[in-house]
Amino acid sequence: MGRLDGKVAIITGGALGIGEADCMLFAQEGAKVVVADINESEGKRVANQINQAQAGGQAIFIKTDVSQEKDWQILIEKTLKEFGKLNILVNNAGVSLGKNIEDTTLDEWNWLMGINATGVFLGTKYAIMAMKNNGENCSIINRSSIDGQIAESGLFAYCASKGAVTILTKSAALHCGEKRYKIRVNSVHPGYVHTALTEKEAADSGLTPEEYFAKVGSQHPIGYIGRPIDIAYADLYLASDESLFVTGSELTIDGGWTAQ
């Protein structure tokens, strides 16, 4: 307990899945949490649960479309007004599309890239601007994927977006280092995790969630797919001062998928 005492964290896509697990875990470890999501009802539920269930937990919900620059400006402004600073950003919000390059339309490409890549660019940019002069240790954690390291033909736009996240993270980390900002920037690369996102991928593939998770689970050397909390613990490490010498890195949590 207390690994994030005194820190303020924004978590995008915080209403469900890995984002929700991050919000709950970070609050348990002492952070003040901003739940940022386009899903208002579920986002408010997470914030209310933190405020009601956690000992001394503090959380607010701010409705945010991460693909929109104005929403990022409002999100940062409200966070600073409510909590006075920003120490942690987890760029977790993301979408998927189970199509190959020939079947992907331009509209679908622009929609997915707007959330998965542009959203991470905007979040990283505005978080750096908010963090760089506060004099405290700060961390930006960008949600990439194993598909930002290797490719799958049936997830063309998703792979492209996560590849962009992988490299923009390294560039931003170098920038912060060169400027001697006390900001670390890293990417986290989950394998398949049981979330609403992977349930959509199951539907896109024509399988039931149970069939899909059994199929992809067997392809992980460990024999099963991950849980949101498995990724949240990695995010916690990068958010905490335990990782002060870690920046520009790819943290892969994939049950051995990419070791094959």
Structural description of this entry:
The protein has 260 residues and is α/β, with parallel strands linked by helices. The chain folds into 2 domains: 8-191 and 228-253, Rossmann fold, CATH 3.40.50.720; 194-225, no CATH class. The protein is 47% helix and 15% strand. Strands 3-2-1-4-5-6-7 form a 7-stranded parallel β-sheet, sandwiched between helices. Helix 1 crosses helix 8 (228-239) and helix 4 (106-131) packs parallel to helix 5. The longest helix is centred in the middle third of the chain and has 26 residues, at 106-131. The model has no long low-confidence stretch (mean pLDDT 95).
List keywords for this structure.
Rossmann fold; 2 domains; alpha/beta; 7 strands; 7-stranded parallel beta sheet; single chain
Question: What's this entry about, in short?
Answer:
The chain is an alpha/beta fold.
Topology readout:
Layout: E1 8-12, H1 17-28, E2 32-37, H2 40-53, E3 58-63, H3 69-83, E4 88-91, H4 106-131, E5 138-143, H5 156-178, E6 183-190, H6 196-205, H7 209-219, H8 228-239, E7 250-253
| Count, helices | 8
Helix proportion range: 40-55%
Strand order of the largest sheet: 3-2-1-4-5-6-7
Task: Find the count of extended strands (DSSP E, 2+ residues).
Answer: 7
- The name of the CATH architecture of the largest domain is 3-Layer(aba) Sandwich
In what range is the share of β-strand residues? 15-25%
Through-space gap between termini: 36 Å
- Briefly note the structural class of the backbone: alpha/beta
Q: Strand count, sense and closure of the main sheet?
A: 7 strands, parallel
Overall pLDDT score? 95
CATH class of the largest domain: Alpha Beta
**Shape summary:** globular
Regions with little confidence, pLDDT below 50 for 5+ residues: none
Rg measurement, Å = 17 Å
